[in-house]
Hints:
A: alpha/beta, Rossmann fold, globular, B: mainly alpha, 2 domains
Amino acid sequence: MKKFIRHIILFSLLAIAFVEATCAFLIYTEVYLFNYPGKYIYEAIKKSKVKSKAKTLILGDSVGRQFFPVNSSSDSINSLATNQAIGLIGQYLLLNNYLKAGNQIDEVILLYTPFSFKDNLDQEFTYHYFLKPFDNEQNSPYYSATVREQIAKIPYHQFHQLPHIKATSWAPKFELDSSPNNTFLSPIAIDYLSRIKTLANQHNCQLKLISPPINIAKRELLKQLDLSTISETNLETKFQKYFATITYVDSTLFVDGIHLKDPERMMSQFKQKVLN
Amino acid sequence: MLFNSIDFAIFLPIAFSLYWLLQKSGNKLQNAFIVVASYYFYSCWDWRFLSLIIFSTIVDYSVGLALSREKKKLERQLLLWTSITVNLGFLGFFKYYNFFLDNFIESFKFFDQQISGNTLNIILPVGISFYTFQTLSYTIDVYKRKIEPTRDFIAFSAFVSFFPQLVAGPIERASNLLPQFFTPRRFDYSQAVNGLRQILWGLLKKMVIADNCAEYANLIFNNSAQYSGSTLALGALFFTFQIYGDFSGYSDIAIGTARLFGFNLKQNFAFPYFSRDMAEFWRRWHISLSTWFRDYLYIPLGGSRGTILNQIKNVFIIFIFSGLWHGANWTFIVWGAINALYFLPLLLLKRNKVNTNIIAQNSLLPNFKELIGMLLTFSLTVIAWVVFRADSLAHACDYLSGIFSMSLISVPDFPDRIHAFSTLLLVLFLLIIEWIGRRGQYGLERIDFIKSKPLRWCFYLILVFVIYWFKGSTQEFIYFQF
């Protein structure tokens, strides 16, 4: 029995070390990113630190990404669209990286559906899509008190950089979102929209807010949103135009009510709207 | 408490340590501990149904003792039928009440008559199909005087509720398991290591093979109308390996866990997908259930003796009941009937015991005839699994007609094909290991051919990593719903 217990303990320690070492190696070689959920976020982070000739930068949620994938590029447009789970703090960090890399742009376009502004780093996806790629020493100086507070509430937030966690899509199950259903802008969204606007102004580029096409079945939900917090962002005019130019599209064109089945069909029409 | 959960990973070492600490106190105390641990294990699922297990235990223990005292045939039969009524009564009520009521009402609609009935919101107690059959086998064997009834209530309770096999089998026979509660159990290093090895293999089959295959099986079956024949065929293939990985994986973990406690349970799966004909398949798939039906239903009905009509009737009865055991749905019944149709020609042509040895017994690879037999048997099994998995008979018909359409000759088209391809590679890995280990009780049992211990440990570490890296999103064990 003693021999068995000794061997169990030894094997368990070896197994932990082996798994950790192998995961660390896979992270070092970036092999872990093959078929990794949210791989495009890492691509966006990498791309945000590279100089580009493009004069227009796209940031966005997953619907925005359907029209402007991260791996697409042209001489005029560069896309860092990812998803809403990185929050407006994530969008701010991408923009900040991009401008610090010496990129000179005329406009930054935030392609966000109205329901994406609600994210307050309080979703189950926050762990995998925000903490793992963004939460590090380089970015933490840009955290507001609210961001730090929200991160502290996430279970196991201290361990997301451990190789065996970072290399997989594991995330703890939790749900922190207790905001009312009709919330439009979360506290983090209000704060970081203002910061994005300030950053854009400092670099003489224009900020545009545009919504991707919305499911017509969600029109009534949109009308119920509490828009009173827009005034805290000082972006009233931009939001006015944002809501006025929303395109509503038939429900049958959506996979899940939010993402389009075939964004290619609307690509040229939508691109024109975005760039004009 | 799933076997592949953190809860079980905490429960098992604690139960193991306390159990072997009681070794010096004798097996009575160890048996009592098993009862406590097993009741705790079961109550983690649903404590309300613990009373059913306890009641079933008391009834069958009492019936067993009464049978030993009673000499008169009629009274003995009455006692036996008491046990059968209680056990099958619980099973029938919890599992089949709504099904029979709905079909009863439907049959009246067929004659344009409307009757109403109240279906009940019944929760199926986990493991009921397994432990009721296990205790029934005890009373039937006592009745037939195959075994002596036990006077040790604690040992009997431990036999009924033994947690490794309580919720999803194997369905153990009293003649095999009950005596083990009376013999002193000494910790055996190689038995324990064998147990851990089998648990590791079972976890790989469940977490890597079954859970990954489940993602695609569910996606394709739940949206079958939109997919081509080739995709539907792939979906059927994924389900085929999902159910095998799930159920045989669970059995491996159950048997391996029992070994840690010094118990030897019977093999429940003997590499069924390497079968050369359907008769062999049914000797290798869910062995504990098929032998239960053989011994307690098929043979009493006359088995393969008597007229051809009698043999056909008995085969259909056993397979349909086997289907019905799985659940209250016509798909399970038709699945059983399909397997009866597969089996009958072999029985009637007296070819049902042709392939009783291990495939490619003295060679590395199967010969041509064995390979054809294996592929044909596998294909027939996959077709039958479509009916088993479908939501309804109409769904099964649509699914199968979708497979056997012109679109079968097309490239499968469904989301995330790269991951699906890697899942198929993992299935291939499983098949290779199980092929190499086909002479053992489970895939990894014959790992001793790797003489070097460090090399064996390296292989285990790789398996641990494969489980960690490739595990699918957690799915409940399929057989928990039965």
